[in-house]
Amino acid sequence: MKALLSLGLLLLSVTVQAKVCKHCKLVTLLKSHGMDGYRGLNMTNWVCLAQHGSNYNTQITNYNPGDQSTNYGIFQINSRYWCNDDKTLRAVNACGIPCSALLLDDITQAIKCAKTVVKSPEDMKIWVAWRNHCPNRDLTQYIGNCGV
Ligand SMILES: *[C@@H]1O[C@H](CO)[C@@H](O)[C@H](O)[C@H]1NC(C)=O
């Protein structure tokens, strides 16, 4: 019984640590790519978007039946304007990349493309997840405990 309980606690702490790791890994990468203060936006906005848009899952895709486009990856970047997935009508591909590049473990391309998307702080509003969870809030918690 006691052994089972400590096994349970061990598993719980491993899960919690994995979560902390994921978000602090993102914080470190954002910082090293100059995303803190980029276009006047604190990087907490990107962590908030990643948490609510993809739960830090780089492999996630979401289809938008409205315009038949798809959102890709950790920041949920849209195929209508920003990347090419060979199936979105009148796609622009402003980032000049295949959308699959936004699904890699290595998020370098995703960060680069995010920089293309956001020309001013207002542009964060294109993301529903950001609109619903991030504006006019204290976002300090999103980089708390990461030691940056
Ligand atoms: C971003 O927000 C954090 C926490 O609120 C703060 O410590 C940091 O200085 C801010 N960065 C910029 C570039 O304003």
Q: Which key features would you list for this structure?
A:
148 residues, mainly alpha, 39% helix, globular, binds 2-acetamido-2-deoxy-beta-D-glucopyranose, 7% strand, Lysozyme, single chain, 4 helices, three-stranded antiparallel sheet
Shape, principal axes of CA atoms: globular
Helix content: 25-40%
Mean pLDDT: 90
The domain count comes to 1
CATH level 1 class label:
Mainly Alpha
Ligands bound to this protein structure: 2-acetamido-2-deoxy-beta-D-glucopyranose
Rounded to an integer, what's the Rg over CA atoms?
A: 17 Å
Number of strands: 3
Please provide the ordered H/E string of secondary-structure elements. HHEEEHH
What would CATH call the architecture?
Orthogonal Bundle
| Structural class by secondary-structure content | mainly alpha
CATH topology: Lysozyme
Q: Give, in spatial order, the strands making up the sheet with the most strands.
A: 1-2-3
Keywords: Antimicrobial, Bacteriolytic enzyme, Disulfide bond, Glycosidase, Hydrolase, Signal
Domain Glycosyl hydrolases family 22 (GH22): 95-113
Family: Belongs to the glycosyl hydrolase 22 family.
GO molecular function, one term: lysozyme activity
Question: How would you explain this protein's 3D organization?
Answer:
- Monomer.
- Belongs to the glycosyl hydrolase 22 family.
- The chain has one domain (23-143): Orthogonal Bundle (Lysozyme), CATH 1.10.530.10.
- Helix content is 39%, strand content 7%.
- It contains 4 helices and 3 strands, in the order ααβββαα.
- The protein has helices at 2-32, 44-54, 108-117, 128-133; strands at residues 61-64, 69-72, 77-78.
- It has a 3-stranded antiparallel sheet.
- Strand 2 and strand 3 (77-78) form a beta hairpin.
- The longest helix has 31 residues, at 2-32.
- The radius of gyration is 17 Å and the shape is globular.
- 2-acetamido-2-deoxy-beta-D-glucopyranose is lined by residues 36-37, 42, 44, 140.
